[in-house]
Structure to design on (224 residues):
């Protein structure tokens, strides 16, 4: 079957760095997406990785290892507004997104 | 910046009533998706359109749910009759192409509460 695993909840301190991990098992693989979702709002696109390695975009970076079926989202210089759920989604061989349940990130002052 | 539009933002209804949600995708986006999201879970695909054609509705409860995209632009999702278990966020998303790596962009969603 197809499956995405990510931690349910994480807590971090304002100004710190946090890494949110995601492992995936899919039928074929055409890339991995990260979305941010604030409570009661729609998901917003953060990043897309299809090749191995790190993609940096401001305070946010995303890493992919296709051989390990593993990705992480790295958030630096955490701000209170980063409190949200972070959804990992893998694109399978049919170009369908397989979604994780999301990681709720709590930022403390 | 172009956005996906959805209405209404919130809907409260009683069980056995009919409800309808509307979505207008980003202009030029051929592919439109309807998702349902229960609190604490990831989005679940209900139906996918390519232009006016249904590409995937395998997870759509067809006894009570219907979706259409008659002119290949905006779309309507209907539930009749609504059940208590239908309470969720209904999200519409669009992307430029189908069977591609194009990013899906989401509308603000409709929060449905069935009493």
């Amino acid at each position: 079957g197809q499956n995405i695993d990510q931690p349910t909840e994480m807590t971090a301190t304002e100004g710190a760095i946090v890494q949110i991990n995601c492992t995936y098992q899919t039928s074929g693989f055409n890339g991995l997406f990260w979305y941010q979702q604030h409570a009661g709002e729609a998901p917003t696109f953060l990043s897309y990785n299809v090749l191995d390695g790190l993609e940096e975009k401001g305070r946010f970076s995303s890493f992919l290892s296709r051989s390990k079926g593993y990705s992480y989202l790295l958030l630096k210089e955490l701000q209170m507004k980063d409190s949200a759920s972070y959804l990992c989604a893998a694109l399978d061989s049919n170009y369908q997104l397989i979604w994780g349940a999301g990681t709720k990130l709590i930022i403390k002052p | 910046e172009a956005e996906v539009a959805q209405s209404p933002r919130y809907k409260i209804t009683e069980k056995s009533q009919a409800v309808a949600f509307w979505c207008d995708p980003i202009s030029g986006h051929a592919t439109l998706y309807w998702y349902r999201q229960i609190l604490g879970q990831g989005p679940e695909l209900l139906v996918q359109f390519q232009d006016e054609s249904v590409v995937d509705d395998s997870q759509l409860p067809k006894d009570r749910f219907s979706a259409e995209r008659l002119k290949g632009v905006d779309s309507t999702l209907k539930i009749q009759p609504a059940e208590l278990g239908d309470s969720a966020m209904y999200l519409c998303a669009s992307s430029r192409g189908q069977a591609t790596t194009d990013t899906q962009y989401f509308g603000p969603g409709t929060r449905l509460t069935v009493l």
Observations:
- Residues 20 and 73 of chain A are 5 Å apart (CA to CA).
